[in-house]
Amino acid sequence: MFSERKVLLVVNPISGDLDKNEIFEAVIEKAEAEGYDLRIYSTSGKEDQAIIREMVENIKPERVIVAGGDGTISLVAQAVHDQDVILGIIPAGSANGLSVDFEIPADLVDSVNIAFGHNSINVDAVSINSEISLHLSDIGLNALLVKNYENSDTRGKLGYAKEMFKTLSEHENFQVRITTDQEVIETEALIVIIANAQKYGTGVNINPVGDMSDGFFELVIAKKLDFFETAKIIAGSTDLNPEIMKIISVEKAVIECLDKEVYFQIDGEYKGLVRRLEAKILKGYIKVAVP
């Protein structure tokens, strides 16, 4: 006889370096120990969001556990939005920025225990041109890095490091106008980050004031590469030189690239070239299991 308590495990089979069989074994063991009826879905890249949504509506799980990177987590969050479920995270991507922000450890057993645990928080999202970002999205330098990484043959942190050198040689600054309820900023930029969270998957604290549950997102505007200002951000300082780096907290913003189309990525997934972005906060978008 099946348990009334159900959990759905969603696995991205091609993300990161972690052995997916180990994930299956760990989650199956935990589900049996906790008395859950476990269902499993492996993403294919085809209609995943709609399939997951239909499974959640039919199965009605208490929680949905995601094993993948930031892109997979964002996909599943959109699929279960407005459903009464808790989202659990098992870090299994090339870059695991969301798990870093939630302080979910890389250790498989620990992350599985947290995913099945009792602690959870409501997390905001950002709508960008009607697409959803849970973590960090940007235009400029990092989006070009994501594009180059997606097109490379090397996965993991080694792949990121390899593509960084190529990206730095290719990138060009751009002119941008940012309109918020508080001000209009027009400047040359290296990168503009739409930050719901604090840290990239590398652990770099690009947005020290970020809080994923405060009803705001930050715009981090870097005008040029500068070692000292970058070091301040990594150290968590907000005492930044406004001529080089600026951070503002907003509920909505319009970002216009004035001189060219610019590379754009959402939560680690390259989206193409853009000239204009409209971003707004979506408060309490999803409930996430945390330590």
UniProtKB/TrEMBL annotation:
Transmembrane spans: none
DAGKc domain segment(s): 2-132
InterPro entries from the UniProt entry: ATP-NAD_kinase_N, Diacylglycerol_kinase_cat_dom, Lipid_Phosphate_FormReg, NAD/diacylglycerol_kinase_sf, YegS/DAGK_C
Sorted UniProt keywords: ATP-binding, Kinase, Nucleotide-binding, Transferase
Name under which the protein is recorded: Diacylglycerol kinase
GO molecular function: ATP binding; kinase activity
